[in-house]
Amino acid sequence: MQSIASKPVFSWLYLLVWFLAGVFIASPLSAQQRNIALDKLQSGLDFSGAEVQSLQADEFANPGNISLDTGNKLWSKPDGKSNKSCQSCHGDIGRMKGISARYPAVDKASGKLFNLEDRIRQCRSKNQKASEWPYESDELIALSLAVTSTSRGMPLQAQINGAAKSHFENGQRIFTTRQGQMNLACTNCHDQHYGQKLYTDPLSQGQPNAYPLYRIDWQRVVSLERRLRFCYTGVRAEIPPWGHSDMRDLSLYLMWRGQGLLVEAPAVRK
Amino acid sequence: MASARLQIPPRVTQGDVFKIRLLVNHPMDSGFLRDIDGVLIQRNVIRHLLCTLNGREVFRVEPTTGVSANPLFEFYLRATESGEMLFRWVDDKAYIGELRHNLVVEAANASKPSGN
To answer: Which residue of A1, A53, A151, A161 has the fewest C-beta atoms within 10 A of its own C-beta?
Structure first.
């Protein structure tokens, strides 16, 4: 049988094809490649029903407001052995504007990647000398929501270079790696099939721009970490412990992936 | 925990029908759910919510386990008299929440141009 590849010209072509294929297969992890173009980004609100959208838009009935009120009160409430409030050092909460759009960020002292809740917890123990707030406690989430709400309407702009680079790369690896009994990566649903249905619900892009938000299903304001844990449950993967660095790295990747989306707070989702 | 938000129009005129919205911060535990350790969470819902104007009952609701957490109560009243509105609710743990609001009703022809 005569093969066309036996001719010298075609064998060179084959080599070239293999070389190019190698470049494209290797590229997703090596480059900061966007799977969803910046102009195609959509907040989770776009995938929500009209009732959820109107509840979020309702300045009064939005159930996240209760937690927001609590958070605003906590900001100026003295606590701990220092008997200082957040306000004593940071001033008015309005000065926190823009902060949440830049988190998670690397903490210079410890070199760890901190989200907003980590930062609040650290500030409480180190500067305020107050009792620890557990992850997902009402107070921690309320204060985090209050700080986030000062950035409402600002675009996400996570920093992924310098000290954050390795965290970003790990986050990207987690996002694109299949895991769990369902053997699914985040990218399989949220990059490749958003807009379609998962059971009866529309599948969103998995954007982090509105957290912490009120989730009607759980009847409370929840952090991005808790929502990510729920996704881990969905693909039946092993959930990292609370505060694990993998979760922070993944959050950083998500914030970069949603770059330019506007902060919504207090937001509502089903 | 004992917080609530109240929305009432800033100005109401005699004879107007106006909307009142009250958002109460409450877990509304139905008594059917278990916590993460598998222990049943005791039923704790708002049993009784009463709104009075100058001591006279104008609205009452008796919610049950079918109402979600942080319930929003929305109802309408006709403006007849100024006075103190008192919202009072009691839950299964006998916790009593209260919220007061001073309602000012303006005379019918004060704000409207003559001849309508």
So the answer is: A1
Q: Do A61 and B3 touch (CB under 8 A)?
A: no
A249, A113 Cβ separation under 8 angstroms: yes
Count how many domains chain A has. Answer: 2
pLDDT at site B37: 86
Shortest Cα distance from A64 to chain B (angstroms)? 10
Q: In CATH, what number is assigned to the domain containing residue A204?
A: 1.10.760.10
Residue A25 lies in a domain: no
pLDDT in tens, A245-266: 999 999 999 999 999 999 999 9
pTM over 0.90: no
Q: Is A231 a catalytic residue?
A: yes
The per-residue pLDDT for A30 is 47
**Which structural domain, as residue segments, surrounds residue A141?**
64-149
What CATH code is assigned to B4-106? 2.60.40.10
Whether A130 and A112 map to the same domain: the answer is yes
Could you tell me if residue A20 is inside a domain? no
Residues counted in chain B:
116
Which of A51, A60, A69, A74 to mutate to test binding with chain B, by most B CBs within 10 Å of its CB? A60
- CA distances A56 to A101, B33, B97, Å, are 20, 27, 26
Residues A130 and A228 occupy one common structural domain: no
Judge: A63–B5 Cβ closer than 8 Å, yes or no: no
Contact B5 A60 (CB under 8 A): yes
Question: Cα-flanking dihedrals φ and ψ of residue A135, to 5°?
Answer: -55, 140
Domain-ending residue, one of A91, A120, A149: A149
Helix, coil or strand: residue B43:
coil
Q: Are strands A213-215 and A267-269 parallel, antiparallel or unpaired?
A: parallel
Q: Do B23 and A69 touch (CB under 8 A)?
A: no
Strands B72-78 and B17-24: antiparallel
Nearest-neighbour CA in chain B from A24: distance (Å):
45
pLDDT of residue A33: 83
Last residue of a domain, one of A149, A169, A188: A149
